[in-house]
Amino acid sequence: MIYTTTLLSRGSLIGSLISKVRQVVAKNPSTAHTNQINNNFTPTSNTNRPLAAANISNSSVHQSKTLEEQVGLPPRPKKPLTPYFRFMREMRPKLLAKDPKITTIGIVQELSKQWVDVDPKLKERLQSEYKKDQETYMELRTKYESKLTDEQRAEIKQMKQDISDAKERKQLRKRVKDLGRPKKPASAFLRFVASERLNTPQTSQQTYREWHQKATAKWTRLSDEEKAVYLQESRKELDHYKKAISIWEEKMIRLGHIDVVRSGILIDPPEPKARKSQSIKEKLV
């Protein structure tokens, strides 16, 4: 019987809206598109584009370097705000003026309702601004990409793939945790370190690194008999873990969560090898 892997559940509409809004927050409203295109790589007006149009987040905004910046290039021209997020940027201050205690979710919900019945003239103006900025953005992006070398393109592509792979691994680890995967027991050395934290805790004059180095040095000086205490405990729990993980993986396969098992051995058992006597008979025939 073939089982299919269950899909990751997606967040609610409100959650996705808040996430999108936070991507376009700025402390100061952005000005109109005024930068002109030139032949050199220069920051465009989109670089000063708000990191979040509605300024939803109350915490300080930290903008990490883009992939292009990490390979020594100026930031890639950013897409202009859509009419909806332009509307949110304009309406949020008015909404806060009426109700300063309104929550982030409340802002998104209220503005989403207002957008449904927004004045057609206002929507037309926002769409016109977006279309104009979109045309400028396409020109800037074409100009930008034409100056990229093959090596730079390949490096950016690889970095994107690495980020995607890391994201998938993170999601898989979360799924595994949510599905109750048995935890692998600590090694003998980690058990010793844990006991040292109780018996010889870190002093105020020590950094954790200094304390850990001292504990590691002490572990290397232990006799085989002293280490055996921790090794026996570790091996005993490791045996329990192996049994528990096998039972858990078989359960995951039955439920269709094939991607969380360690290997394909449990999914597609190998065909039994033919006996020697049987193979000999087949040759004689």
Walk me through what this model shows:
The chain is mainly α and 285 residues long. It has three domains: 13-147, DNA Binding (I), subunit A (Orthogonal Bundle), CATH 1.10.30; 150-178; 188-276, no CATH class. It has helices spanning 13-22, 67-70, 83-98, 104-116, 120-146, 150-178, 188-199, 208-221, 224-255, 276-284. The protein starts with 12 loop residues before the first helix and ends with a helix.
Q: Quick check: average pLDDT? A: 77
CATH superfamily of the largest domain: High mobility group box domain
Low-pLDDT runs of 5+ residues are 1-13, 24-61, 264-272, 276-281
Shape: elongated
* Count of alpha/pi helices: 10
Determine the N-to-C terminus distance: 35 Å
Counted up, domains total 3
CATH domain fold name of the largest domain: DNA Binding (I), subunit A
CATH architectural category of the largest domain: Orthogonal Bundle
Question: How would you spell out the order of helices and strands?
Answer: HHHHHHHHHH
The value of Rg in angstroms is 30 Å
